[in-house]
Amino acid sequence: MFQQAESTILPLEESQTALSLASLPNPSPTSPPLNHLDISDADVIIQSCDLVDFRVHRRTLAMSSPFFDDMFSLPQPQPSDKGIVDGLPVVRLPEDAEVLSGLITMLYPIPSKLPNAYDKALTLLATSQKYDMVGVQSRIRGEIQTRMFPTLTGPKTFRSYAIASSGQLPSEAEKLARLTLEFPMTFEYLCDELSSFKGWALRDLVGFRKRCRDNIVSCFESFLKLDQPPFNIWVLCTDGRYSYAFVSTATGCSPSWLTQLFQKLLNESREAFSKPLFNPQSIRDLYLSALKDHISSYRCIACTKVHALDGERFCKELTDRLTVALSEVCTSSIFGGMARV
């Protein structure tokens, strides 16, 4: 019934973005050709916002999407002979040719055309969500999970979040919202991507970032309570140049190098809203660096022994607590705006 082949798809002269069945002027003979699927018995043309035509079957669209099923079930105005393209009515869509090409190849048993960039693949997924193509969504998600995309840069991470949030993709938006924590969040940094955001999406991302920052701050504050496990492993440091306060006779002492490290990270986290938030995986290296400086400077045998016995377990506990502090931030409230779109 159909075959994959090359055909000439030419932009039309008249640009319209309204979604409707309508007639269009004849294509311009000087427009460059595009490789595309040729379906000889197609009965409708889908036109992109950049004026590329895709010949498809109404029944295929209707079976894949309640949106198109409802559209084709409504009475349509009779197109004039002058406006018919190759005898077929035209449906104008607001998506560009790359997105529609990827979407249409998902509807037929032919090789799919998933974009190479993650943000564009996400746009394709959002389009399938928009037109309620449940089966197509599953296929796109499967291909995205197996595809190796280039690493997202900071601005593209924010752009991808904006696409996922406005496209009603909560699982993708949640993942990307957490990735944005690794990058600055300032108007200067986001300047080129701000136009991608809906107002509520940017507001919700700011609120999410603030809650994550507050949880990290609370976590570091708890680290200063060294009379509680796992912090009560530390004993009196042998270096007389350090000043220590006894927590209790049962739990030993608080090494000032460790207290100073936590206080420094606490102060930095309080001021880090617009900067990248603290990465829990980095606490081990910071701890080891502070311990090494302390031992190298003062040849502290006590702290060396404590670390040898319990240091790795201690680091893991710190990492786990910081990780939980971020992961327990309520993600459902991040995407409250999705219900309002």
From TrEMBL:
Gene3D superfamilies recorded: Potassium Channel Kv1.1, Chain A
Domain BTB: 40-116
Cited CDD domains: BTB_POZ_ZBTB_KLHL-like
Biological source species: Russula ochroleuca
Protein name: BTB domain-containing protein
Signal sequence segment: none
